[in-house]
Amino acid sequence: MTDEVVVTVHDEWLDHIDTVARRLRRVGMRVDRVLELVGVITGVLEREHFDAARAVPGVAAVERGETVRIPGGENQ
């Protein structure tokens, strides 16, 4: 099964976040966003590849992302 994921990058790897993203792609992650200022990479990954993603140098955590839906206002 495929999940949206949020990958947190170790502080000492922030200057190399693009390298971390490239390595995550190699283990099967579809990288959607690289948020350099906060050290986060978001995307989609098969659950069976979570451990491989966690083993990528520079990765502090791999967590399932959650979609937050805000209900529409009265005018919608």
Topology, element by element:
Layout: E1 2-9, H1 17-26, E2 30-35, E3 40-46, H2 50-54, E4 59-64
Antiparallel strand pairs: 1-3, 1-4, 2-3
Describe the model.
By secondary structure, the chain is of the alpha+beta class. 20% of the residues lie in helices and 36% in strands. It has helices spanning 17-26, 50-54, and strands at residues 2-9, 30-35, 40-46, 59-64. A four-stranded antiparallel sheet has the order 2-3-1-4. The radius of gyration is 14 Å and the shape is globular. 20% of the residues are buried. The model has no long low-confidence stretch (mean pLDDT 91).
Compact description:
The protein has 2 helices and 4 strands. The chain has 76 residues and is of the alpha+beta class.
Which regions are unreliable across 5 or more consecutive residues at pLDDT < 50?
A: none
Secondary structure: helix percent: 10-25%
Oligomer: single chain
What overall geometry do the principal axes of the alpha carbons give? globular
Amino-to-carboxy terminus distance: 34 Å
Number of helices: 2
Strand content: 35-45%
* Rg measurement, Å: 14 Å
Features:
20% helix, 2 helices, 36% strand, globular, 76 residues, four-stranded antiparallel sheet, alpha+beta
